[in-house]
Predict the 3D structure of the following.
Amino acid sequence: MRKIELFERELDETPIQMLSGEYGHNRFFVKRDDCIPFCFGGNKVRKAAEFYRDIRKTDTDVIMTYGSNSSNHCRIIANMAAAMGLACHVISPAEHRERLYNTRLVESFGAVIETCPVTEVAETIRRREAAYRTEGKVPYFIAGGGHGYHGTDSYVKAYREIECQEKRAGLHFDYIFHASGTGATQAGLVCGQLLSGDGKRKIVGISIARDAARGRNVVKDSIREYLADDFDKLYTDDRLIFEDGYRLEGYGSYTEEVERLIDRVMALEGIPMDTTYVGKAFYGMTEYLRSHEIADKDVLFIHTGGAPLYFDRLTGR
Ligand SMILES: *Cc1c(COP(=O)(O)O)cnc(C)c1O
C-alpha cells in the first residue's frame, strides 16, 4: 500500500478566524476544519487520518465502509483508499439514491458502491467481508461517519489544538458550537474537555437530524468507550449538551432563513456553508444564543466541512 504523506504526521493546525459580520450580541470565531488540505477538507479528514495510521499497521487490501454514497464520509474514505492504492467498497442505503457532487467524486475514485435496503446493512457488510476473506483478501471496515475510537480520538486532538491556539492568542472561548451528526466529533470534543479539566466552557452540539434522546446516548456511549476506566471519574451529564431544537424537518431539511444566513456569511466572510450540516448548525447556534439571552461571550464555531454540498445547493439539487 502507498503512503499519504499528509497523514503520516499529525495534521497542521486549522486556522481560527474572527468574524466581521454581526450574528448576535457575541464575538464569533470560526475554526476552519473545512480547510484541511485533502479532498475539500472537513471533519471526516481528521477522522480518516486516524484510521489511516491504523490501516498502515495492517495488510489491508480493501477498505470497506458504510454510508450514503453522497456523504462527505464516503468521499474522504474513497479518496484515501485511492491514494493508498487500495480497493474501496462502499455499502450504501438504497433509500438515499440522490446523485450529488460527492457521489461523482466517490465514483471517480473507483470505489465499488453496493446498495441495499437500510434494514439489510449489517447482514450485507458481514457477507461482503466474509466474501473478501474467502478470496484471500484483507478487508478493513470503517463505521459510517468514521464513528468509533479513532473518530473520537481525532477530535480529542482537535480540542487540544484549540487550547493551544487560545493560549497563543490570549483568548478563552466561552462556547464551542458545531454540527452534530453521528456524534464522534462531539464525543471527541467533550472527552478533550473532560481530560483537560477545563469545566468553564460549554460545548454545544447542534443536532442536524437525531432527537436528543437518541443523539445524546450515542455521544455518551462514544465518550464511555474512549474514557474507559476514567469514565465514571471524569464524566458528568451537564458536559454533554446535544441540542435538538434546530433540526427543522430532519436530515437535509432547511428553511429560507438558513439560506439567507448562509448567503450573508459567504458575502461578509467568504466562508461557504452547506444547508445539511454547517449552515444549519450555524443558524441553530445564532438562535440558541438568542433564545438563551447569551451576550458578550467569545464563541467558537467549528466549520466541519461539506464543501461539495455547497455547490449542490447552487446548482439546485
Ligand atoms: C459528518 C459531518 C458532521 C457531523 O459529524 P459527526 O462526527 O458525525 O457528528 C458535521 N458536518 C459535516 C460537514 C459533516 O460531514
